[in-house]
Amino acid sequence: MTGVAAGAYLRRYSQPPAPTTHLVCFPHAGGSAAAYRGWTALLPPSVRLTAIQYSGRQDRMHEVMPASMDELADEVALALSRYADPLLLFGHSFGATVAFEVARRLQRWGPGPVEHLVVSGRPGPRAQPRTAKHLWTDDEIWDDMLRLGGVDRELAGVPTLRELVLPALRRDYLIIETYGPAPDATVCCPITAFLGADDPEVDRGQAEAWARSTTGAFRLRVFEGAHFYLSARPARVVAELMSLTRPTPTPGRD
């Protein structure tokens, strides 16, 4: 633990007086909480929206970044443990694994408040491929991010943006590439996996591997698009998330 204030991780974009759902969003590697700010207008007025702001970016640029997934998940789980209302966790790419580890901790600390975990654009923990992007050169890492669509190409040539993003992106890669789940790592809440049909980083089998990480129900939802499919059709993604807060028929894969 780095001793960072628990509240430093939380960005509250919507705070209704009597929320029926608390949606907590975890950004991708190199990403920030601001990626989810625009979702506020797409959500029902009864939904509280909180996004996680990792250290080392934007208003937390000069803070020390965690050295491991365990350290990061411990700190975020501590920040969220103050909430008694049920949580709907959504994590994209790197954020999917962070959300999973946070859900495990909240579950372990008591009758966990995590009602549903949605993991997007990431292989299940036991299907995570071995990579070493954190050892790549700056040019290689930046080109890979552009390939995946994580940076707007109109902004990609701005030197100051690259200088600001690369340190956090490299550290996030280090955290995810040195992560290994415990052999019995599972959650008891349902897991739904979101996948872009043309995602070059995750195939259907790898997405379905999340089924082994829950003792509850599992669903797979496939969207048009590649790795950052959610940026192209946020309304569709938000609508699908909200459907998970209502009773549904018997779980299945489609």
Summarize it.
This protein has a single domain, classed as 3-Layer(aba) Sandwich (Rossmann fold).
Compressed to H and E, one letter per element, the order equals EEEHEHEHHEHEHH
Classify the secondary structure makeup into a structural class: alpha/beta
Based on the structure given, which CATH architecture is correct? 3-Layer(aba) Sandwich
**Total number of distinct structural domains:** 1
Gross geometry? globular
What amount of the residues lies in strands? 15-25%
Distance between the termini: 40 Å
Distinct helical segment count: 7
* Major β-sheet annotation: 7 strands, mixed
Number of strands: 7
Can you give the helix content as a percent range? 25-40%
Q: Any idea of the CATH class?
A: Alpha Beta
> What's the gyration radius in Å?
17 Å
Describe this structure in words.
By secondary structure, the protein is of the alpha/beta class. It has one domain: Alpha/Beta hydrolase fold, catalytic domain (Rossmann fold, 3-Layer(aba) Sandwich). 30% of the residues lie in helices and 17% in strands. The protein has 7 helices and 7 strands, in the order E-E-E-H-E-H-E-H-H-E-H-E-H-H. It has helices at 69-80, 94-108, 138-148, 159-177, 204-208, 229-232, 234-243, and strands at residues 10-14, 21-26, 47-52, 87-92, 114-120, 191-196, 218-223. The protein has a 7-stranded mixed β-sheet with strand order 1-3-2-4-5-6-7. Helix 2 (94-108) links the parallel strand 4 and strand 5 (114-120). Helix 1 packs across helix 2. The longest helix has 19 residues, at 159-177. It is globular and about 45 Å long. The relative contact order is 0.15. This is Thioesterase II family protein. It holds the Pfam family Thioesterase. Residues 22-238 form the Thioesterase domain. It comes from Plantactinospora siamensis. Belongs to the thioesterase family.
